[in-house]
Amino acid sequence: MQLNDSELHVFCMQLTDVISDNRYAVLDDEERRRAARFVAPLHQRRFIAAHVMLREVLARFLQAAPDAVTFTFNLNKKPSLSGSFANQLQFNLSHSEDFAVLAIVRSGDIGIDIEHITADNKLDIAERFFSTNEIATLSAMPQTLQSAAFFQIWARKEAIIKAIGKGLEQSLSSFSVSINHEMEEVTVDQRKWLLYPLELHPDFAAAAVSSAPFSKVFIWDCSENAPILRSSNNI
Known about the structure:
The chain is of the alpha+beta class. It has a single domain, classed as CATH 3.90.470.20. It has six helices and eleven strands. It has helices at 21-24, 29-36, 41-62, 123-129, 132-139, 143-164; strands spanning 7-14, 71-73, 79-81, 90-96, 99-105, 110-116, 184-188, 191-198, 204-210, 216-221, 228-234. The radius of gyration is 18 Å and the shape is globular. The two termini are 21 Å apart.
């Protein structure tokens, strides 16, 4: 697989299948320890499936074996490629319930987030964590639309937080996003980010954020063990 400087690639996977032993073998010792910490077998299977997908997709771009891909982590545990693969590309992984998404770009900082949309009203949580403008937007909406809009905002803000790589050091209320369906520019601490809303599944809200501009977005489906191009869009 090829990756141009102006492209964003997003890979999607349903985390419902049990990973075969030969695919599980690509995980390193740390990933296996993290998987073992999950008490519920369902959560363990989802973690394993997401991280196998991560390695297999990265390996295609890097022209390497999945078990040869190595990672390093910053102080807030954001991963990046290490060793001979350092700086060859940038990636970010997110999963919610049984759905995982992986964003990959050639350069710049990248973040992605996906959130399962539930029917319960989250306005009280928004009032604790969102900006004044976002709270006003939600409050003005009919209650039947507030839940989906809440998760759209949450996913976009989390994607930005993940792209920045500071974890909880960056307050969610320190910047605002919209609920529009077009790419937008968001400024956080005087740094500009490109936010791209993703419509991947009706039950999930998702967004990708990059510090570097891109002109084309590719959406891939990895549910059949190999990435299948679902769509490509010019920005």
